[in-house]
Design goal:
By secondary structure, the chain is α/β, with parallel strands linked by helices. It has a domain of 249 residues: Rossmann fold (3-Layer(aba) Sandwich). Helices cover 44% and strands 16% of the residues. The protein is built from 22 helices and 16 strands. α1 crosses α5 and α2 crosses α3. The structure holds pyridoxal-5'-phosphate. Pyridoxal-5'-phosphate binds next to α12.
């Protein structure tokens, strides 16, 4: 069995279902598999449907769930919530492939994991015969929030609270969250950025006032710090590879590259785990926007957050502290928990850390990093629409531009799969401005105009948004965070299930 150990102290070890329930280790570390021994070769999944593939891969990593439990979770997530049975279609474009990850209920890739996480959590809850309420705290840079709210809405024994940065998220993202339904949900804007929100959520896990307020309530997280978020994201690396083999575009065993628009390093880390499991991946191209802390890290080995924070057209990547990098450091250093602890302490104290050259070189064997400024991002959306009549969102455009830079620099001819992480309609104003140079301030009007120009269907959840009543308007100061969370915990404790 795989043990899930804290990246800061491997003596703290739990099983996979316990890691899913708790989200974050008590010492602030991230639960990480202590080894990945079993291989899953492409030939084993070539003829599988998406749910079958998901059951095999998720079952391999979350290995203390029974096959029946995993199957029930997989079907609960992937049978009905997506607008295509393929779940994740792959489209050919001139310069590679687009992996369409936005066919779920909230039109961003977070749906792939957040449709199944509630099932994994409830299954774990039943295994333990618990009778508390799981209170899920979630920080969002835009897309996780709504996907988590949709996933946990009215799920019994759970309550969810989402914190989003008041300035930064797109108007459509904001409206999606503010109109959320369900008795057990709450949505709060924070006068700060994503890093402030994520810090608040992590801090709450060990804050005395919050802990004192937990009467029959257990804290957890739906961020990608939860291993239950990460594992389901491995599946689409396999499913895309299988599509290429099955269509004859590549032979089984050929290596491919993936370009991943990256914020918290969760999505791309799932790709690296796929590689550890045996998927023939050559390079994982880590794409950043102007907040290119990861690009610099991958090139120099120095991770430094002493830099200005920018809000961009790709808000889900406006992040300086990429939490999941901690897991990569742990696994790539040979489970060196003392080293990881030291790096994280330095980051907290000095705003930077530097990894040894040897480790940097090892990381560079699998990863390379590029970043894209706002003009290049607009140009990428513009050019693809003009040349091929394909609409992409700003995050996807950042990845596409990174893939181009990588190709130009290395001459690598391996097929490149670009992760398309959100529907362009979530960012209607910016996308319309980029592709047609039309400036329509109202995002819903921009959405209609974009539809007129592209004829691409508007996802149902976004089309209905305009009519939905706004339920949540509260906004708080960062300094009040712990107090607000403590109050919310008391409210949850007294709510009737
Ligand atoms: C969350 C998100 C990302 C970044 O993914 P990470 O796992 O945080 O690296 C990229 N694009 C979109 C649209 C997202 O919502």
């Amino acid at each position: 069995m795989i043990k899930y150990v804290s990246s800061r102290n491997k003596q703290e070890a739990v099983s996979s279902h316990e890691a899913v329930i708790h989200g974050l280790a008590e010492d602030g570390g991230l639960y990480t598999p202590d080894h990945i021994a079993q291989k899953i070769l492409p030939q084993e999944i070539l003829n599988c449907s998406y749910p079958e593939m998901a059951a095999k891969i998720i079952g391999t990593l979350l290995d203390d769930y029974s096959a029946e439990e995993i199957n029930a979770c997989v079907h609960g997530a992937y049978d009905a919530h997506f607008d295509t049975e393929e779940i994740v279609p792959l489209t050919k474009i001139n310069d590679g492939y687009l992996m369409e990850l936005w066919h779920g209920p909230t039109s961003a890739f977070k749906d792939i994991a957040l449709t199944i996480l509630p099932h994994l959590m409830i299954s774990a809850y039943q295994k333990e015969k618990r009778n508390d309420t799981i209170a899920i705290l979630t920080a969002t840079s835009g897309d996780t929030g709504k996907a988590a709210l949709a996933g946990f809405s009215d799920v019994s024994h759970t309550a969810i609270t989402v914190f989003y940065p008041e300035i930064g998220v797109s108007p459509i993202q904001k409206r999606q969250m503010q109109t959320s339904v369900g008795r057990n949900v709450d949505v709060i804007a924070v006068k700060g950025n994503f890093d402030d929100c994520q810090r608040m959520v992590k801090q709450a896990m060990s804050d005395p006032e919050v802990l004192a307020s937990l009467d029959g309530v257990t804290l957890s997280s739906a961020n990608s710090i939860n291993i239950g978020r990460l594992v389901p994201q491995i599946v689409y690396y396999y499913s895309s590879y299988a599509k290429l083999v099955n269509s004859g575009a590549i032979a089984d065993g050929d290596r491919v590259n993936f370009a991943v628009p990256t914020g918290n390093f969760g999505d791309i880390l799932a790709g690296w785990i796929a590689k550890q499991l045996g998927l023939p991946i050559h390079k994982l191209i880590c794409a950043s926007n102007r907040n290119h802390v990861l690009t610099d890290f991958l090139q120099t080995g120095v991770y430094s957050i002493k830099r200005p924070f920018h809000t961009t057209m790709s808000p889900s990547m406006d992040i300086l502290i990429s939490s999941n990098l901690e897991r990569l450091l742990f696994m790539m250093s040979g489970n060196d928990d003392a080293f990881v602890k030291e790096m994280m302490q330095q980051l907290k104290q000095n705003g930077r850390y530097a990894v040894p050259q040897e480790l940097r070189k090892k990381i560079q064997e699998s990863f390379c990093g590029y970043w894209t400024n706002e003009e290049e991002c607009s140009a990428a959306m513009h050019d693809l629409f003009q040349c091929e009549h394909v609409l992409i969102d700003p995050h996807t455009a950042v990845a596409m531009h990174a893939a181009k830079q990588y190709k130009a620099e290395t001459g690598d001819k391996a097929p490149c799969i670009i992760l398309s992480t959100a529907s362009p309609y979530k960012f209607s104003h910016d996308v319309l401005k980029a592709v047609a140079d039309e400036d329509i301030a109202d995002d819903f009007a921009a959405m209609d105009r974009l539809h007129e120009l592209s004829k691409m269907p508007i996802p149902q959840g976004l089309a209905e948004l305009k009519k939905m009543p706004v339920r949540f308007r509260r906004s708080i100061e960062i300094k009040d965070g712990m107090h607000v969370i403590a109050d919310r915990m008391k409210e949850i404790a007294h709510a009737e299930d």
